[in-house]
Amino acid sequence: MKSRSPLLAATLVLIGLGLGATLLRDQVPLGAAQTPPAGGAPAAERAARLQNEQNTMDIVRKYEPGLVFISTEQDVVRQDPMGWMYGGGTQTQVQRGVGSGFFVNKAGDILTNYHVVAGEEGAGGEPGAADRITIRLMGREESVPARVIGLAPQYDLALIRAEKLDPSRVTPIPLGNSDALGVGQKAIAMGAPFGLDFSVTEGIVSSASRTIPIGFSASGEGIMQKAIQTDAAINPGNSGGPLLDSGGNVIGINTQIISPGVQAGGVGQSAGVGFAIPINAAKNLLPRLQKAAGGVVTAPLMGVAAGFLVQSPQGVVTAGLSLLGSDAKQELGLPETGLVIGEVTPGSPAARAGLQGGTEKQTFRGAQLATGGDVIVKADGEPVDALEDLQAVLLDKREGDAVTLDVVRGGKTRQVKVTLDASAFR
């Protein structure tokens, strides 16, 4: 993996926002300074509104009906610690979660985060959805069931659709262009923080291209990808909700916050640093999600398998050359960092580009290393030391796009262009 930012690694914690939250119900006394004046609001109040205030109010009034409140339930079987006393060994618990989403078209497709609707993994370790997903619209008391159209864990995105929903109640929110964002422009976050459904906050775009770990890889590591940073307050429950610009267009999908309180042992809460998945990433992925038939959509596959495997408490996992000692790398003629290619899938984009897997296997200290083949050290100019680094570069690629790799073999470095065809997408 690439080294993380010292600030993120040393002092702060990135947390997902889709977890359930306890709603605080304590009543807060209304002080005298907060008491509305007798006779209602001043007559000049509307005229005194700033242009920015009116813009926000207009956007909320028009597009908040497109916001969706999501609830999930997952049946989890756990070992009963007191089972030996009563003759039972297990008990079933229901885990509940809440999050947000929004309509993207008149067909009723709802975009949200994968971690909002995620359930337990399948028997083969494949990602799964919660046992029960329901959605509720603004101004409606009843909830309706929803089904999964497609899951994309590596992108932390999911597409769901409500069943038996009156089409007249579907209000799509237009999708904008996150590539055109400017630092300092207005950002409006909609969602359900702490279960307070249909809430709105406002701030600015603090950074248009922050790189953070998003999504869920097979090894459990986050995949580094670009995100929008905003100071619009987002909190647990805001996950999957839209981040809008001053034109009412969705520019991002709220996904994470930096929360110093978590490391201090407290509850995750906003510290004025939140992140959203750029909407262009979701737009690129949307056609694949719509065709997924309830299945999983993955990042484009180049057709290479890692050739450096190490033993960990979780079992055998892939690793980058940064974990190998310098003496061993020097003896084997390997670069300091890089992704060792163990195998190349026949007929894949990597095979057509001439990439080669290892021809010999070295075993030492519980690790296995394929040598004699290629080592990827860069992809489109970005350093590569693990499969997740390569996936991060491939995430926003489409069919026909090319990836330029810096590859080392036999101590010599060369550039290889790999073109992604239909076989890279499944």
Descriptive report:
By secondary structure, the protein is of the alpha+beta class. Among the domains are: 66-75 and 95-169, Beta Barrel (Thrombin, subunit H), CATH 2.40.10.10; 304-424, PDZ domain (Pdz3 Domain). Helices cover 15% and strands 36% of the residues. The chain is built from ten helices and 23 strands. The strands form four sheets. A six-stranded antiparallel barrel has the order 8-9-10-13-12-11. A six-stranded antiparallel barrel has the order 2-3-4-7-6-5. Strands 14, 17, 20, 21, 22 and 23 form a six-stranded antiparallel β-sheet that branches.
Topology (elements, then pairings):
Layout lengths: L5 H5 L3 E3 L28 H4 L2 H13 L3 E13 L3 H4 L3 E14 L5 E4 L1 H4 L14 E6 L6 E9 L4 E6 L23 E6 L7 E16 L8 E8 L11 E3 L5 E9 L1 H4 L10 E5 H12 L13 E3 L1 E5 L2 E4 L7 H7 L6 E6 L4 H4 L7 E5 L2 E5 L3 E5 L2 E2 L3 H8 L7 E8 L2 E8 L7
Antiparallel strand pairs: 1-12, 2-3, 2-5, 3-4, 4-7, 5-6, 6-7, 8-9, 8-11, 9-10, 10-13, 11-12, 12-13, 14-17, 15-16, 15-19, 17-20, 18-19, 20-21, 20-22, 22-23
